[in-house]
Amino acid sequence: MGEIRVHDKQFEPYLSAASIAERIKDIAGKLNNDYAEKKPLFIAILNGSFMFASDLFKELAIDAEICFIKLASYKGTKSTGHVITAIGLDMDLFGRDVVIVEDIVDTGKTLSEFLPQLKHQQPASLKIVALLHKPEATVFPITIDYLGFSIPNKFVVGYGLDYDGLGRNIPEIFKLIE
Ligand code: IMP
């Protein structure tokens, strides 16, 4: 694996497909154990998490459901301020064991705004699985219950993650060369 170019920027190999697959097997093993009798509902956040969610879901040996949602943020009124809404969330979460699937937690802003909305629906439990976390970028602290990799505060692409729309199809994760 050599360097690649996406739009105007150069990226270098960072996490191989094999190391990602290995971490996913580990996480799935924990989930299989923790949710053995529970029939959890996985909620994957599009677009970035589609590849991770798909590979993770294949490794689950338990009864589980999955749905995919998209988060849209828009400017609300003066009193509501910035609002985030979930598109496609048509499941009843009341009493369910819910697991959010995210590609990457960066500042934590997205999840810190979205999680209260989910809690409002009174799920029995609410956990987060994320492939990547940039601890140094934290502005809104989020507890990640199942984590693939903790990474430095560098921009990454591949394995579902994009740089301005491109790079999602790359099977490995590449890091920006600065
Ligand atoms: P947060 O709200 O700051 O935690 O950002 C989360 C979202 O930002 C992720 O779901 C990604 O879509 C995007 N993001 C953050 N860092 C990166 C990156 O390094 N590469 C690609 N997308 C990223």
TrEMBL record:
Pfam families registered for this protein in UniProt: Pribosyltran (PF00156)
MF-aspect GO terms: guanine phosphoribosyltransferase activity; hypoxanthine phosphoribosyltransferase activity; magnesium ion binding; nucleotide binding
Cofactor requirement: Mg(2+)
Primary location class: cytoplasm
Enzyme class: transferase
Domain named Phosphoribosyltransferase: residues: 18-163
Subcellular location: Cytoplasm
Enzyme Commission number: 2.4.2.8
NCBIfam families on file: HGPRTase (TIGR01203)
Family: Belongs to the purine/pyrimidine phosphoribosyltransferase family.
Protein name (Swiss-Prot/TrEMBL): Hypoxanthine phosphoribosyltransferase
